[in-house]
Amino acid sequence: MDNSPNIKNLHNTFAIGVAFSVVLWWFINRHVLSIGRLLTKFGLPKSLFEPHQDLSHIIEPGFKSSSLWKYENILFSYTHVLVSGPLAVIFFILVYVENKNLDILDATQGTAPSSTFLAYFALLTIANSVGYFIVDFLQLLFPGGGLTQWPHLIHHLIFPGVTALCLKNFVLIYLLMLVLLVEWSNIFLHPRNLAKINKVDQSAKWHRQLKLINFYTYVSLRILTHGFFTWYIFTNRVTLTDLIGLPGWLFLAVAMSFLNFIIIVFISRLWKSDVCGRQSDMENDMGG
User: Fold this and answer.
1) What is the DSSP letter of 110?
2) Which alpha helices (DSSP H) does the chain contain, by range?
3) Domain presence at residue 281
């Protein structure tokens, strides 16, 4: 008996999941400061997760200051990290429990889970992140500065684009879920950005330590993950071309090259501002 999921049912479920996710993330975006206050209840510092009083003002009715908007956007991104990162870890634990001999690094051994439960688990996790990227894209495009945010806008288009490419025939699902593991590289980056925009004392020992911990975790995890994705895309070119076609493979290759370039630029700026101590205007990030 074939227990593999039906492609049409997967597509329908994904569409419903994305629609629900967009509504959910839009609601979260509207109440993101409440998320910050909730995080302080679990011991996270108020100096980071509650906006400084200088940020909490309105320019005109319905319009927030740009600093408050940036603060909320970073907190919004951090919420996505706290949701998608653990879900991706849970998924791969379940994959390992189901098939300990599976080598997900070898595309010829299969690129998507065969069991219905894992297929839908991955599908809804991916739909959740697509919904987040859609909402954040709209936030960046309109109140967030429009085309001046072009690196972030392109970054936010790549994941939904790759998702559409892979879900057509339900392939490369392991790759999509591995992409969500990249969110762990932002676990200290967003608090670092919140501290900067919240005007936390730059000379405080814990703040200097946060910046250094963030730099080394961000750089090591980004080099590891981006290096892996680059290696995977180019070493499995023949198999991937068979799965998604040559145009699909070229899209992956170009998208990965763009992301590698952006991350190199961002890491160099992070090095100058947080390790060398030079002044920087960095208030946002290239995180998810």
Assistant:
1) -
2) 7-30, 32-41, 46-49, 66-98, 116-141, 150-167, 173-181, 189-197, 205-235, 237-270
3) no
- pLDDT at site 3: 59
Q: What is the pLDDT of residues 142-162, one digit of tens each?
A: 877 778 888 889 999 999 999
pTM of the model: 0.90
Instruction: Give CA–CA dist 235/250, Å, rounded.
Output: 13
Domain count, the chain: 1
Decide if 271 is inside a domain: yes
One-letter amino acid at 192 equals: R
φ and ψ of 3, to 5 deg: -95, 5
What integer is the mean pLDDT of 165-170? 92
Q: What's the pLDDT tens digit per position in 173-208? A: 999 999 999 999 999 999 999 998 888 888 889 989
Assigned domain for 70 exists? yes
Q: b or e along 13-46 (b: 16 or more beta carbons within 10 Å of the residue's beta carbon)?
A: bbeebbeebbeebeebbeebbebbeebeeeeebe
